[in-house]
Amino acid sequence: MKIADNPTIQLLKERIAMLESQAVTLEQKSNLAKLKKELAELAPVSDEFNATFSSSGWAAYDSLSLPLMKKALTIAKTKGVSQANNYLTSIYDQGLVEAGITRLWGIEPFRSRLHLIKLAYDDFLCGRYHACIPVLLMMIDGVVADSEKNLGFFSEKSDVTAWDSIAGHQTGLSTIKSIFYSSRGKTVKNKITLPFRNGIMHGRDLGYANREVAAKCWALLFTIRDVLEAKRDEEVNRRKYEIDKIKSAEDIRRDMKLLEDGLREVLEMDSFKRIPVTPGIDIAVTGSSSDYRANTPEKALIEFIEFWKRSDYGKMADCIYRSSQITKSKMAGRLRQVFANKLPAYFSLNEIQDLSSCKCDITITVGINYKSDYTSDYRLLFRLLYSEKAGTELVVNPTKEGQWKVVENFATIHQIGGILDLPGLDEE
């Protein structure tokens, strides 16, 4: 079975066929033909990626950019797999790895390990691959063990597949798992290009400390993150699939119209971006939420900080970008664990970076009292997303009703009073 045969892809094909049989106008027929062609082009990409690159230690995963996968395949066809492998290694740069680490906080087993993953990231940026790679392999094994009844990723009995998932498809992660867990019975001094777990952790593969092996470890870590998310959400996704299966042609037409409108807005996303905002010039560096324009990410963040000052975890939970699976009370409990006894005394906005019309990164300096009257300054990065008020669907047109919400990624705050404040460690 291929990824292109996943249930939701097959359901979309059936929907298109149903609408084709009922299409009357030329516009309807043209739109369906275009959608059918796009699906035929996009659906096989992940399968082709795994077929081409799994033996080299790469697997398609849900959050890996489709254009990046397509470019790698194009390079493989025109210049060879070796050149494509170099390209894939190069894309795991500071930006992609930072974005991947940001997403780890949303999966429970990663949270207690984020400080070590960030240290591995620092080693990666400095070219200390000898230190980065073993830590990532340990974290990969431990995260899966916490999710799979003490069976680590490299255990023969651990299940790294997931229903209706790209990352969890049997042609991807399961394949590279068997490669990375290969027996390494002899000491090898030459450079290796695959993260052989046994050879590296048992001191038999001595030429492991290179960027390619490190990049493949990061790719593996992010692939596992997507698999664990798919496993966590499997029950909800199955229910949604069963509901979608019984929708009428009229329901499908309405859904398609919404999809087309949404795609059109995504294509025009750049036109919705506001003019860059600079703290101290365009807006105040600090102040109360009432000092800032309504429906802006900076106002939403400052409201969150004001609730934080009052230790109002329920109101803080209302500000968080969260799925319907996580209740307000559960989120409030999570926030209490992270923010308790860490009260902000003051803050200042350092930088506001609008990544798109519905995604914004805001860097602040905040003075925090931790179990004392003494205040320490910390530089924190918050990501905010503009989404439906009662859901997680992103709203790319900011003139439409929605809410700026804070992404739950509080690893730095979680470490305050612990490893973050040990001598010799940066606050970042």
Could you explain how this protein is built, in words?
- This protein has 428 residues and is α/β, with parallel strands linked by helices.
- It has two domains: 44-232, no CATH class; 273-421, Nuclear Transport Factor 2, Chain: A (Roll).
- 51% of the residues lie in helices and 13% in strands.
- It is built from 19 helices and seven strands.
- A five-stranded mixed beta sheet has the order 3-7-6-5-4. Strands 1-2 form a two-stranded parallel ribbon.
- Helix 5 (81-91) crosses helix 12.
- The radius of gyration is 23 Å and the shape is globular.
- The protein starts with 6 loop residues before the first helix and ends in a 13-residue tail after the last helix.
- The relative contact order is 0.09.
**What is the string of SSEs from the N terminus onward?**
HHHHHHHHHHEHEHHHHHHEHEEEEH
Determine the mean pLDDT.
86
The figure for the number of domains is: 2
CA-based gyration radius = 23 Å
Question: How far apart are the termini?
Answer: 44 Å
Helical content (DSSP H or I, runs of 4+): 40-55%
Oligomer class: single chain
